[in-house]
Amino acid sequence: MKITVSLRYNRTILKYIGIIISFAIFIILSFSRNSFSYTSATICFKCHKKSHFVGKIVHPPVAKGQCIICHNPHCSKYKGLLRDKEASLCYNCHKKYKVLFTQGIEHEPVRKGQCLTCHDPHCSNYSNLINGRLADKCFKCHKKLIRHFAYIHPPFKKGQCVVCHDPHHANNSLLLKRDSDDICFSCHKKSKMLRVHKNFPTKDIGDCLSCHDPHGSNNKYMMRKFLHGPYKQNCSICHNKGKVTAEDCLRCHKDISKKLLSIHNHLLGAQGNGCIICHSPHAGDSKALLRAPQLLLCRTCHEDTYERNQDSLYVHPNISNCAECHQVHGSSRLAMLKEDGNKVCTRCHATQGKFTHPIGAKARDPRTGQEMTCVTCHHPMGTNYKYELKLSGKEDLCIQCHKNY
Amino acid sequence: MTKLTLIRSILVIVILTISTAVSCYARSAPWHWILTLRGDASGKAMDMPYSLYVDRMTTRYYVVDTYNNRLLSFSKKGKFLHVFNANRTLKLPMAMLHDTNGILWVVERGKNVLVKIDLKNKKMTTFHLKYHSLTLFPDRMHEFNGVIYLLDKMTGNVYAFNKQLELLHCFKVPKSSSGFIDFKVMRGALWALVMETQTVYRFDLNGKLRQVIHLSKEMEFPYSLAIGPTGMIYIADRHKNCIFVFDGTGEYRYTFLNLGQDRGKIYYPSEIDFDPWGRLCIVEEGNGRVEIFGR
User: Fold this and answer.
1) pLDDT of residue B156
2) Which of residues 157-186 of B touch A (CB under 8 A)?
3) Band of residue A19 on the pLDDT scale cut at 50, 70, 90
4) Using the beta-carbon criterion (under 8 Å), do A364 and B112 form an inter-chain contact?
5) Percentage, residues of chain B above pLDDT 90
6) Are A380 and A325 in contact (CB under 8 A)?
7) Residue B190 has pLDDT above 70, yes or no
8) Mean pLDDT for chain A?
9) Residue of A260, A267, A367 lying closest to B262 (CB–CB)
10) Is the minimum CB–CB distance between A260 and chain B shorter than 8 Å?
11) Inter-chain CB proximity A245 and B134 less than 8 Å
């Protein structure tokens, strides 16, 4: 009798436990994204054509019908009913890239979190879910790049930009994957290059980009457009006695020598020749034989300045032309400006030079006793206040000096 | 008896707690402004001052007022004393020192020379410095035990000369393309900063490298270094307008000061150094002054 009762009692308990477990499983399944999204995808595709989400490569969440991983089906403050900012959504799954991409210099769309500039989040016929032919994507932004030459480097011709460049980040402003010579020698065998450069002045061949344009050129062997005078005539003009020093350069470029006698100069304290950090000694795309477009070149060392100002709400126009305001070889003014903080601005802002808050030798900053100049109140590189003011022009800026007001 | 013991114990605990708190505070105490050296008292504000020299013997501060082509002297309390411009012959002075023989040494960027000024005999001698037939671009300069140490802006090396300007030693970054941006001679060693790699190198005074200190915190534009009385490393970030503090191993400790024109703020610092009284002196090119901080 006792045994029958306990058995019945146990069965009842088991029944309840079974019901509870089933209910729990039901609850878990119904609230889990996978099952829910499967239902949602079915619903989504009632309106959104399923054929639009088909390609050689389909983003796994799309393939699994997990639309709501990224989208909110009801409402959102982000375009496309996204649940979050686009990069934040991507990094939810692609976690390791969130940290990795911040190392070194980021490609502009990566820095701005605009993954969809290059990638399609649903499907694509191109690898890595690129939303079109890779080169077309690159040239869409890099419009100034010359594309047609008499002699074109095959990877450039084929649109294989990523053979040399990293589209996300790199440790250099040109976003080269590795040291430029390493990239060149990965295809062009060094032994062969040594054979074809018979009179190369040093034993170890290198610095290929100081003569060759890696994209293409109208000159044979993809030589760059502008050649350094001595290079055009005879290598031995410079390479006649071991290493070429900055002093050797300055022997001809006497005008630059004078500029170096300024409080700040770009001698750079380099163990080798400081001049060739910015200039190619052989050939270049501009008369100054710069190794890269100016902004990219300056960013090589002054990335902090670029990063600090690039996201400001108000930025001075033509900011990429550093040499417009800065004396790049040497200057005795603050921040290596071409002239003092008034003259450098009034070259363009002539009206403000005549009619403005008192500036010049007679108007002194009460805080420091320094001459009032345009840059006392403005920071032309970029600020979050109108007219690139350092603080709000409504009050905050003025009361720095006019304390009794 | 028991009560007395208890009171004694409580007192000891309280005293220990207070002393620990005080010593901790002293170690991490915020720096406070003590005084400012300004050029106004000379009738002209400083313009782009680049460096500072403190004369232990006379307890005077000398500010190199570079753009105004002059040297200004101040008392320990910050009172303006004199202007010196070598009869208006100085052209962009960058650094100076006053040796024990009463000789004034000045680095002039405008002529790229080192000038020896015998104040007693009113005699000036200029030297165009060379190393292995290469012209040097002297920048910063310090003296220790009769040896003049000069930073060459061209190579980023530090050269040690005797008073006859014979080369004694060369201090350079081993196996690197970058040179030094600043150096100090302190605690029997030469400490030099490399901006690109954010590294401090410690040499003995014979030019032998003794320690490489990688600074653990990323800075924007480390421009000048100072070694504190307790061996802490102070770095002035010229673009971030603040001072980073690291311990002797390069471990980051704290940051202080920020951008501004008001007292206690800094703008484009060009040099930092400790005076003989343990106060931190900051030469500000942007604000045309030297601010002195203590704790």
Assistant:
1) 94
2) 157, 172-173, 176-181
3) confident
4) no
5) 85
6) yes
7) yes
8) 88
9) A367
10) yes
11) yes
Residue B23 in contact with partner chain A when CB distance is under 8 A = no
Residue A38 scores a pLDDT above 60: no
The CA–CA distances, whole Å, from A117 to A134, A141, A166 equal: 11, 10, 15
Determine the Cα–Cα distance for residues A345 and A326; give it in Å rounded to an integer: 11
| C-beta neighbour count of A347 within 10 angstroms | 13
Query: Who has greater pLDDT, A115 or B9?
Result: A115
- Looking at residue B19, its amino acid is S
Residue count of chain B: 295
Pairing label, strands B189-194, B80-84: unpaired
User: What residue segments make up the domains of chain A, in order of their start?
Assistant: 32-132, 174-296, 310-400
CB B233 within 8 A of CB B202: no
Residue with tokens 């100049």: A373
Considering only CB atoms, which chain A residues are within 8 Å of B261?
A: 365, 367-368, 400
CB atoms A335 and B38 under 8 Å: no
Instruction: Suggest the residue from A368, A377, A379, A400 to mutate for an interface test with chain B (most B CBs closer than 10 A).
Output: A368
B239 neighbourhood in chain A, CB within 8 Å: 304-305, 308
pLDDT reading at B172 higher than 80: yes
pLDDT in tens, B104-124: 999 999 999 999 999 999 999
